Amino acid sequence: MREIVWRRGEAKWEKTLIVVGIVLCILLPVVALLGWGVIFGVLDEYDWAETEELHWKPQGVNYYAKGTHTDPVSGHTSELFSKTQYIGSWKRSAAWRASETVIVQGQWRCTDWSIAIWTPKEYWYTISWSDSLDGPWETISEPGNTQSMVTMSNPGKISFPQEWIGSNDWKPMYNYWFEIRGDYKNYIRVELNIRFSWWIYSETKTATDTCRMLNGIGEVYIDGPDLYEEGEQVTFTMNTGYSGKSTGEGENMGWTLTIYNPAGDAVEEFTDIPDNQYGVTRTWTVPVGAYNPSWSNIYTAKLYNAIIDYDSVYTFVIDEKEKAPSRPVISFSGGDKPGDRITVTLESTPNEETGAPIDYFKADVFYESGSYIIQGMTVDAVANKGTFTFTPNLGGVHVVASASAHDITGRPSGANTASIYIKHPYEEEGPAWWQEYWYVIAGIIGAAAIGGFLLIRQPPETIVLRRRDLEQREPRR
C-alpha cells in the first residue's frame, strides 16, 4: 500500500511564496500608477538657477529642451519667450487693459535613443512673476490653476506624442500664449518641465527663461469713418503710457505719430505727444494730390515710442466717395486649428456709377491681441474675387482678417473685417493606456504567472512503506 505525503516544512515555504506573489500583484500597479515619489515622499528637485537649455544625460543618452524663439533685439536663439521684454497694458478698452501677447514655446530632442531607458511622458509650463529678479516669485499659471490676470488658461500637462519618441530631430512643443490684464510686475519667468520615467521611478527636469515687463499703453484710432477726400480733416485719437521720456532717457525717447503714404514715405509727423495720457488728439488735413490712381491710396498712421511700434491705423483717400467700390465680403474655409492652412476669400462689387472692375485687394491678418500674421498683402482679383491662405500657430483665440478692395481706377473701398475662432491646440491625444502602462501590465502578468505556477505545482511524491507491508513482502526467518 502506498501513501503520498508532504515533505517536512515544504507547505510553509510554498505558502510564503504564494503570499509574496499576491502582494506583488497588488503593490506593483499601485506604485507604477501613483509614482514612487508619491508613496515614499520623494520630491522632484528643480534647478531654479538654470536659464538656458535643459541637458540631461542619464546612462549616456542626451536629452535636450530649449526654446524655439530668436529675440528680435539681441538676436539670441533658443529662447522660451518670444522676446526679452514686453509692454504691459498694451491695449485699453472700456472694460480692460492687457499687455502685449506673451508667447512661450519649447522644443525637445533626444540622441542615442537605442540605449535609452528613460522615457519622456509629459511636459508643462509654469509661469510666475516678481518685482525683482531675486524674487520672491509668485506662480500665476500652472496646470489646473490660472490666476485671473492671465487671459489664457494654462494648457495643463501635455503627453509626448509617440512619434516623437525615438526621433533624433528637434521637435517643437505646443506654444502657450497669454496676456497680462491690468496691473503688472517687472519680471515674468517660465519653467518648461519635462517628466521622464523609468519602470517605477520618475524625474522632472526643468528649463527656464525670464523676460521683462514694461508698463505702457499705446493705441491710435480714428474716431469716425476711414474713407476721406482731399482737403478733409482726419482726427487721430491716442492713448499713451510711459516711454523713455518719463524714465530719464531723453526727450527724443518719447512718443511719435507718423503718417505714411502708400509708397512708405512719411508725409506728417507729430512728436509732441505726452506720456501717460488718455484721449490725446492730433488732426491731419488730407493734402491735395494725396489721391493717386497708380497706388493703393492707403495712408497709414503709426504710433511709436523708443521701445516699440505700438499701433497703427489706416486712412483711405479717394477723389469722390460716391465712386468707391463696395467693401469686400470676407469668408474662411479649410480649417480651424493651429497648423491648418486656412483659405480667405475676398469678394467686392464694382461701383454702380463707374462700373470699374476690382483690380486687387489689400489684406491684413492678425490675432485679436494685435500681433500680425500677414500685413499689407496684395491679393490679385479675378472676376472681382481674390483668395489667399495663412497658417495660424496659436489656438484658443480669434484671428481677424481685414481687407479693402481697389478697382482699376485706383479707388479704394475702405476696410471690412471678419474673424474666425482657432480652436485650443492642447487636445493632442496621448499614447494609448496600454502603451503608457505597459510595465504595469507586464508586472501584473508576471506576478500572476508566478502565483499561478505556485498554486498548481505539486511537490515530488514521497513513498512510505508501512511496517506490515514489509512483513508481507519478506516473511521472518
Written overview of the protein:
With 477 residues, the protein is mainly β. It has four domains: 10-28 and 436-473; 43-215, Immunoglobulin-like (Sandwich), CATH 2.60.40; 216-319, Sandwich (Immunoglobulin-like); 346-429, Immunoglobulin-like. It contains five helices and 28 strands. Strands 3, 7, 8, 9, 10, 12 and 13 form a seven-stranded mixed beta sheet that branches. Strands 15-21-20-17-18 form a five-stranded mixed beta sheet, with no helix packed on it. Helix 1 packs antiparallel against helix 4. The radius of gyration is 35 Å and the shape is elongated.
**CATH classification class of the largest domain:** Mainly Beta
Mean pLDDT: 78
Helix content: 10-25%
Number of helices: 5
Query: How is the biggest beta sheet arranged?
Result: 7 strands, mixed
What is the strand content? 35-45%
| Total E-strand runs | 28
**Count of distinct structural domains:** 4
Reported by name, the CATH topology of the largest domain is Immunoglobulin-like
